[in-house]
Amino acid sequence: MEDIEFFDICEKEQTAASPFLEEEKEDDDNVTDRFWNVANQSKGHKLGEKSVEEKIRSKDASEGVGEDSDSSGEIQEHYMNNGNNNNNKTMKYADRVRILNLRRNLNQLDNIAKEKDLTIQKAREELSACQLRIEMLTKERECTETEIEEEKETGNIAAVFRLQAMHRRLCAELGNEKDLESKIALMLKENVYKMWQIEIEQGKSGNLREQLEQNEEELETKCKERAEQRIQKEKTAARMAERKQQAGKKKEMEAQKEYEKGHQKVVEDVHRNHEKAVQFLKKSMLRIRQKEAKEELRTQEHMEKRIQAVLSLKNNITSNRENLRTLQVRDKARVLEAKKQEMKMREVILAERGDVTKEIFLHKRHMELERQKQEFTEQQKSQKIEIVARILQEEAYVKKQKKHQAQTEALRSRSKLQDSLRWRIKTWQYIENACEDPAAAVLQKSWRTPSACSSIDDKSSSVVDSSEKISQDTIHENDEEDDEEASETLAEPEFTGLWTQESNLYKVPKDETDPKPLGASKMERKIFTENLEKLRSRIIHKQVVSGHEFKGCPFYSKPSLVHFKDFDVGKTYKKKIILINASYSVNFCKLVGVSEHLKDFINIHFDPPGQMSAGMSCEMVVTFKPMINEVLEGKVIFLAQNGSFSIPLKCTTKRCVLALDKELIDFGTHVVGETISRTIILTNRGALGTRFKLQTSAGDNGTRTTTKSSLERMVSPALNGITSEEKASSSPVESSMYENKEQVSPVHTEEVIQHVGLRESQKTEISLGSSHIEQFSQDASITEADLEAENAESTPELMPEEEPVEITLGKVTEGEIGPFSSIKLQIIFTPSVPGDVRAEFEITFDNPNCKPLHFCVIGVSVDVPVWVPNPNIDLKICMYERLYQDCIIIQSRAKAALRLKFEVCKELSNHMELLPKTGYIQAQSSFSVQLKFLPRHSLPEDAGRYFDKETRVLEVPMTITVADKTKPIEFTVHAIVTTSDLEISPAEVNFGYCTICEAVQTTITLTNKSILPQEFGFVGLPEFVEVQPSDGFGTLLPQESLNLDVIFKANKAKEYSFELTCKSEINRIGKGEIAPVGPTSFEFLVPEDSPVTIMPSVGTVLPGKKCLIQVSFRPVLSEQLIREEAVQMLCRADAQRMMLKKIHESEMQRRRDETMTGKKDGRKPSYATFRQPSRVRSSKYATASSGFEPPKPEEIKTNSEEYIAAQYSLIRNFTGKFERYIIPCFVASGDIDEKRGSENLNYSPYNTLYLELHCPAVAPSVVVTSDNGKNIINFGEVAVGHRIIKRITIQNISQEQLALGFSILNPNGPFLLVSPVGNLDPGENQFLFISFCPNESKLFFETLDIRSIKATLTLSIIGHGLAPSIACSVEGEVLNMGYVIAKEKVTSTFKIQNTSTLPLRYSIKLESLSQTRDKERQRLPFFITSPPGKTDFVGSQNYSGLSVFSVFPVEGVTEPGKSQEFTVTFSPDHESLYYSDCLKVVLFGKEIAQVIWLKGAARNHMMFVEGGDPLDVPVESLAITSPLSEEAAKGELEEPAKSILLNLEYIQAEISGTPAMRELKIGAIRTVQFASKKNVEFSLDSLPLLQQKGFTIEPVKGTVDRGQIKCISVSWMPPADFDPDHPLTVAAVLTLKGDIKESYKVLFTARVVST
């Protein structure tokens, strides 16, 4: 078997060696076949041996080994014979394989021999050791036998037994050792035999070893010879390469000399041209300097004027700031004084034992009413002045009208007079019909007379109306404008009306205004007036409370103006008005009526409420049914205890109220070629629609474009504002507003609809800044003439017919605008010529009552802010598949950084590239772009029209796009693309047949396809081929062809096939040593404390691979700067606190001084008395120390409030910063991961790369202002399923309006953004509401990105969801209150512990108090509809309606880890055994955490019985049984017997079973009643009968103390005569004696059941 294993190993080694020998294999198929035949023979031999072993298993191992050795000998002889036959031949591949296999077989045989020798030695050593042990055991046995004989003789039996046992053990061991000896001897014999066989085999293979050694020596000799031949060839090739290299160096030297000569000539030409250019440049620079000096002088003069204006503005601002600070200090002092007075008032009231809250409230209301009264008085004065002015104006107009009418009547013809008479008759008829009753006459006079009265009423009503003042401002202003325009531009009527017959306004006599009966005499009027005065003296009286007289309106109304807007004739409108008693005490309210002219349209429904306390309210309904389509105004009059008051009433018709959201559209500055669109919104706030039309103004001939200087563009808005009075509206305030709009340029965003009511605030802002505008306009007016003269000289104006239309209208220019709607009108600005553009537009309407609206459009156009100094990039002549690079410089004239995008046309995208593709060019600087051109052979097809195939000229237009600019910058790349190919014709040469003694020549043609000269050479020629002339080397001119001779000299007789290789100089790549190809490592050294991060900073790049490097820039404020700012803020806060303290102390000292000197006169001291001392003290404080020691910056902690506030302050005031970093990248050959220990890779400084980073940092546009500016929103721990909402305040700290966008939170997550914000104006604060509702118990984290155009604000949202858990002390979820006497109470407690980590808000709910309880009681009882075993939680309830169970506390909050004790009170009002209820512990008003079943029973007597099977349903009857009479209650009466059922079941088993057991419980209730009975006695009769039937009862009778329970045990064993088919039933009477005697009939039923 070992020999078989030996041959298997040989075969495996033979197959493993084959791949290593295949490199030297030659094309000898016969030898290879022979080798595989030998291998197959060996395999077949091995299989044959296996089959032989299976057949003759009876033979011993020696025979098998002999056969194996014989077969191996035959194989070796076969190998040997083959070796001898092939000695004379060249050693082939199969011979080498045979030698290798033979050597391995012999080595294996030697190894087996060594192993056998080692095995024999071990066996011999074991055999000798075994024989030695046998001798020792034999001696011990003999000694033991001798000792046994001796002990027998002495009679020591114990020793004899012990020695006999030892003798037996020694005999057994000796037998074992002998067996082992025989086995080892047999094994040694077998191994020796096998060793002999192996030695015989080794002797047989002696000759084979000698032959093998000879073959190995021969093989080694041949390998050495082959190596020497290879070395000789390498030396020959090296010499040839060295010769070629020397020839190349010689050519390079010649080319270098020619290049130097040409370069020197070029340099000389450049010097000559430079000298000529310098002469012209000096003259040009002299002219430019002179021009610049003039411009600089003019600019300095202008700047001095501007500086003076700015300085004056700064001084004004400083003074205003000081005044504001003074006012703030005064206001704070006033607030402190008011608080002190309030405290004094509280003390006085408390001393008088009065109601502090009421008195202070009345005092504040009194002060507020006094202030309103004063404001109302001042407002009335101003309105009176305005009314007088309007009356005077109208009187002047009437006089002028009468004078003009007299002239027109004399010139009027009779025909017109007849027509006018006809119209006058119709008018008189209409007036007579309208004035048939007095009320209509008054109404007609009130709303038909075109006088100033209506405007006066308008003003008075607007004063009274406070709640709707803002919304009505636009209507009042439009009405006033219409009245003014009508008063100035009224058309002349064709006939005189009623209003022209009287020159003065009709004045109503005083007696007509007095309320009196119609048609009464003077005496009746006098009597009526006296009676009315008496009545008023009784009803109306002053209201004085606590020494304060009430003055003002006794009732307030909500709303303060009854306004019916946009009514339709014939419809009915109703409004509900609430009247509130605003007086000091009880008051009443009585309806007097409405205005006379409104009685036909207005109906009042008012129920007098009687006396009303202060602050109480009543309701009134006003019904309006319009009959005419006119505006009506009046009032509703009431009478109160302290005077009359009225509520204004107004009814307005539908009309058009049209307005524009802006009157000026400023497109700002844009580049020529762009198209910018803005929208203006036309809004109709009225209820009547109309048709509109948008067109250019009549006085505007279109857009006017003029080219102005930069200085004039700054001054022109002010000049336009100054000269705007020529075309402004009628009111001076509107003209000033127009000036303001001309000066202020709106933000370049889509404008929104603005309220026209905002004009009031705009007017105040304009008035504040008017002084600065006037000063600026004076400076501007000085240079206006100079600028116009300069423009006239520098730039000629465009002719009207050549003016391009740059401002146009959109698609919508006319249409219908409905009520309460708006329309967006588009204005398009397309600048084509640099300069300022202005256009006027007008919107007209079909409704004659609507005035046309005008607005102005302005814009400024400039050239492109970015340009390329060299717009034509010439790459000269380029070749295919060669890389060419050039640098393109880009300049910027803009004043801000711009984003550039570099684009290559699609046709050249595979051949040309601009790097980088995007970039930022800084203000007024340059930017370089790398141009890479790699022309491929597909260029003529790809380039298309950009490439001329005949001339090979390439012209590629390149585009640079500027962000937010529509006009791109273009430049052109020029190149001549040629090929580098050399063409040989013919492509194949056949020399035919030739002898080895002659040379054959043929001619080939070499053509240069390029337009550049090329050097060529035929390299790698065989020994039998020559190329002449010049050995195949030379130079070809562009498009030149050269004939070359190829000479073929054959040195052997055979067939030749070879190739000629011609290379040009372009194919050469470098001259030095080849760089090693392998992994390259890099490392970026980032400066410490820099905001730049590079990932990865260290790494390795494998050959041909790329590594992506990510560079992050995160600017942050330094901690030291934040700490210093925090210290400064603390110092400023302390200084302010000390200043306020000093002011307060000085004021207190001054008051003490006045009190002591007795100079206090009751007047409040003015602020001027202590303003000066406070200034002095504040100045002293500035120099003196306040005793406050500011902390050191190092002591400020990063998580403190001071640190966060300082960080927020610095971020808000951050002005921007630009930093530049140059980061080196060291490059070294090798893998950074394979270095050992502290070994460093060597790098070359010449290979170091440098990364330049430009890092501009700007202030964030949006910041978080809530929670001290923290960007982390922590909800903390929230119960699962509950929602918490947090409010975050964000602010726009930039100067532009921002459109905000938000990232999407996880839709399946717990966080939700409730109220996203769309737009954020500059300085505006907005609220974000984020809710957190966890659905599982774990920690949640998400980020919310607030995106704007400039930056992104990231909010980190954290929340921890926790499942609330509690532990209840009630076991089994049932709380049994036990038995209690009816109408008594018993309490029990239980605890609930909060086992979670968050506070739990709990509430206790009882099922009996559920809102759905009444509906459930209407259904059938549960014992009818529900399956058996199901019970209702709510059982019997009290007859009184009160809950039988009550719990305290009902709700509250339990802190984490704490317990809450609850007290349950059981208070039944009648006897019942089925009191029950369900108590639920509800967490957070949603989740039911615990359910407890409350049970209890009530008895009228002190004893009770429990146990037995139920005989009735657990629901009480609705009938209420009458209680016992007093006489019956006094005596010891016996109630009727009640039944108790005890069912006993005996389980029959194979062996004796256990008796059936049941229990009855007898109890006595602990109570203060029934003092005469201290215990309860019980007894059970019919005991013998029960025992006869097998029942055993223990005890039969006894007593039970109060509050105790005793059990009666009942057991049953079936008697011998018991019939299982007939259950047993026995009755007994249980008697209880307590306060009364009760009897219970106990029915014992028994039966036998089988298992």
How would you describe this structure to a colleague?
With 1651 residues, this protein is of the alpha+beta class. Helix 2 (29-55) runs parallel beside helix 4 (93-154), helix 10 (453-464) packs antiparallel against helix 11 (469-488) and helix 14 (710-722) crosses helix 17. Residues 1-90, 434-519, 701-802, 1069-1074, 1163-1185 and 1522-1533 have low confidence and may be disordered.
Give the N-to-C terminal Cα separation.
Answer: 74 Å
Uncertain parts: 1-90, 434-519, 701-802, 1069-1074, 1163-1185, 1522-1533
How many strand elements?
71
The Cα radius of gyration reads 60 Å
Outline type: flat
* Biggest sheet record: 6 strands, mixed
SS strand fraction = 25-35%
Strand-pairing-aware structural class: alpha+beta
Q: Report mean pLDDT, rounded to a whole number.
A: 76
Which helices and strands, and how do they pair?
Elements: H1 2-21, H2 29-55, H3 61-85, H4 93-154, H5 157-204, H6 206-351, H7 356-411, H8 414-434, H9 438-448, H10 453-464, H11 469-488, H12 510-513, H13 522-539, E1 544-545, E2 548-549, E3 555-558, E4 562-564, E5 573-581, E6 589-594, E7 602-605, E8 617-624, E9 632-640, E10 643-651, E11 658-660, E12 664-671, E13 676-684, E14 690-696, E15 704-706, H14 710-722, H15 732-743, H16 759-768, H17 770-794, E16 807-809, E17 814-817, E18 821-829, E19 835-845, E20 853-862, E21 866-867, E22 872-879, E23 884-892, E24 898-904, E25 912-915, E26 918-921, E27 926-933, H18 939-943, E28 947-948, E29 953-962, E30 969-978, E31 982-985, E32 999-1008, E33 1014-1019, E34 1025-1028, E35 1033-1036, E36 1041-1049, E37 1061-1064, E38 1080-1084, E39 1092-1095, E40 1098-1101, E41 1110-1113, H19 1119-1157, H20 1168-1183, H21 1201-1212, E42 1217-1229, E43 1249-1257, E44 1262-1264, E45 1272-1279, E46 1284-1292, E47 1298-1299, E48 1301-1302, E49 1311-1313, E50 1319-1320, E51 1325-1332, E52 1339-1347, E53 1352-1362, E54 1366-1368, E55 1374-1381, E56 1386-1394, E57 1400-1406, H22 1413-1417, H23 1422-1425, ...
Parallel strand pairs: 4-10, 12-20, 22-30, 45-53, 55-62, 64-71
Antiparallel strand pairs: 1-2, 3-5, 5-8, 6-9, 7-8, 9-10, 11-13, 13-18, 14-17, 14-19, 15-19, 16-18, 19-20, 21-23, 23-27, 24-26, 24-29, 25-27, 28-29, 29-30, 31-32, 32-36, 33-35, 33-37, 34-36, 38-40, 38-42, 39-41, 42-43, 44-46, 46-51, 47-50, 48-52, 49-51, 52-53, 54-56, 56-60, 57-59, 57-61, 58-60, ...
Helix pairs in contact: 1-2, 1-4, 2-3, 2-4, 3-5, 4-5, 4-6, 6-17, 7-10, 10-11, 14-15, 14-17, 15-16, 19-20, 19-21
